[in-house]
Amino acid sequence: MHLPRIDLNLFTVFDAIYREGGITPASKRLHLSQPAVSHALARLREMLNDPLFERHGNAMVPTPKARALAATIGRSLGALEHMMQHAGQFDPLTSDRTFTMAVREAHEYSFLPALLRRVRETAPNVDVASVRIDRRDLEEDLQSGELDVGIDVALPLSLDVRRECMSAEPLVVLARADHPAIRGSLDLDTYLTHEHVLVTGRRRGGGYEDAALNRAGVTRRIRVRCQQHVAACEIVSQSDVLTTMTRNQAELANRHIGNQMLLFPLDSPPLETFLYWHGNVHEDAANAWFRDLVRESMLAARTISAL
Question: In Å, how far are 218, 226, 259 from 223, measured between CA atoms?
Answer without folding.
Answer: 16, 10, 19
